[in-house]
Amino acid sequence: MSHATSDLLAPFPRVSLCHQPTALEFMPRITTALGGPKLWVKRDDCTGLATGGNKTRKLEFLIAAAIEAGADMVVTQGAVQSNHVRQTAAAACKFGLGCHALLERRVPDRADSYEQTGNVLFDHLFGASIEYRPSGLDMNAEAIAVTEKLNASGRKAYFIPGGGSNEIGALGYVACAGEILQQSADQGLDLGWIVMATGSAGTQAGLVAGLHAAGSDVPVMGVSVRQAHDIQVKNVHGLAVKTAATLTDTPLPVEKIIVDDGYVGAGYGLPTEGTLAAIELFARQEGLLFDPVYSGKGLDGLINMVKQGFFDDAKDVVFLHTGGAAALFAYEAQLAAMG
Ligand SMILES: *Cc1c(COP(=O)(O)O)cnc(C)c1O
C-alpha cells in the first residue's frame, strides 16, 4: 500500500515484524449505544507479534538499529506487566538476539500471580533474562548502566528505552499515521479525531509527527495512563519535535499535543471503576479485548468524551487500539469481582 508517509520512512533501517496495515473497523453497536459520532477502531492490538500491540511497530525500527549497531542482544525495561518487554523479547527471538529486561515493581499491592502470569509468562517463554527493581528509580538510567556493564564484559548489547519511546521507535507511529490517513480516504471517513492511551509518549509523538509531516490537521487526543497533563504534554511534544525533525522542516507547535489526564485514577497500572466498566462494555458490545493499564483507560476517556458531547462536531472518530490484553490475566481478581 502506498500512503502519505511511506516515502518519508524509506531512508530509515527497518525490519519486518508487523502485520500491516492493521484493520480499521467500524464499531456499529458501541456507536449506537453511546449515541455520538461513528466510532472506529484501528486494530494495532493485531500487529501479529506475540499477541500484538503497539510496540511492534516501534520495534521494526529499533531492532533494525540494533542490528546496524552490530548488537548480539538488546536490553530494555518496563513495569512488571510490560507489554513492551514482552514484544521486545519476542522480536529479539525472531532475529536471533538475546534479550535482557529490567522489570520495575511499579504497581503496589499486586496478587501473587502478578509476577508469573500474563506478560511475565511470555517473557520467560521467549527466554528473556529478567532482573527486578523497586519502584521509583530512573529505569532508563538503570538499563543503560546494565547495558554498559554487559558491553564491558564483551557482549554487544543495544539499549532500547522503556516503551521503545525515542525518535527511532516513534517512526513506527509515523507509519501508522500514514495508514490511518489512507484507510480513512479509502473507507470514506470524515476523520474528526483520533483517540488513544498515552504512556511513555512514543506512540502519540510518532502519530502526531506523522500526521504533521503528511500535512494533516486531524487532532489526536492522548488519554494519559500515568502522568499529569503538563508533564505528559512536555514528554510527548519533546519526542514529537525530535521525530518530526527527521521528516520535515516545518516546526511542530505544542498546540498539536492534546492530553487529558482525567482517567489516570490512583496511578499507573491501577484501573479505576471506569476503566473496568469500559473494558466490560466494549467486550460485550463489540467482542473486543482491551486492557486495564492502558487501552481501558483510553476507552474510559473516549466514552466520557462522547457522552459529554466533546466530539459533536466530528462525523468519524478513530480509537487507536494499542493492545495489552495479555495483561488481563494479571488482573483476574479485579475483573472477576465485576461479575
Ligand atoms: C505501551 C502501551 C501504550 C502506550 O504507548 P506509549 O508509546 O508508551 O505512550 C498504550 N497501550 C498499550 C497496550 C501499551 O502497551
TrEMBL record:
Its cofactor is pyridoxal 5'-phosphate. Residues 16-323 form the Tryptophan synthase beta chain-like PALP domain. InterPro entries: ACCD_DCysDesulf, D-Cys_desShydrase, TrpB-like_PALP, TrpB-like_PALP_sf. It is an enzyme of class 4 (lyase). Its EC number is 4.4.1.25. The active site is at S82 (nucleophile). The modification N6-(pyridoxal phosphate)lysine is found at K55. It comes from Puniceispirillum marinum (strain IMCC1322). One of its GO terms (molecular function) is D-cysteine desulfhydrase activity. This is L-cysteate sulfo-lyase. The keyword Protein biosynthesis does not apply. The keyword Lyase applies. Belongs to the ACC deaminase/D-cysteine desulfhydrase family. Keywords: Hydrolase, Lyase, Pyridoxal phosphate.
